[in-house]
Amino acid sequence: MIRLLWFAGLAEAAGVREETRPLEAPIPLASLWNDLVRDRPGLKGQPRPAFARNGKAARADDRAEPGDTIALLPPVSGG
Known about the structure:
The protein has 79 residues and is an alpha+beta fold. The chain has helices at residues 8-14, 29-39, and strands at residues 2-6, 18-21, 27-28, 50-53, 56-58, 63-64, 69-73. Helices cover 23% and strands 32% of the residues. Strands 2-1-7-4-5 form a 5-stranded mixed beta sheet. Strands 3-6 form a two-stranded antiparallel sheet. A hairpin with a 2-residue loop joins β4 (50-53) and β5. The chain is globular, with a radius of gyration of 12 Å. The termini are far apart. 15% of the residues are buried.
């Protein structure tokens, strides 16, 4: 299992702020995101989020592992 924490507009689009999801083997965060978009129609068209894994910034090619907490954060634009 992994714990997912959804923030801001992503939480609204997903319809949840926190959830657990089965995970038996490590998976790249980008692949996890693709699975989440496939399972939740409200996420279609959303840009890929920024990720944090166990409280630390993570890249899309980092792997989520069973027992992890993954935060999904809307991308931030500067200006």
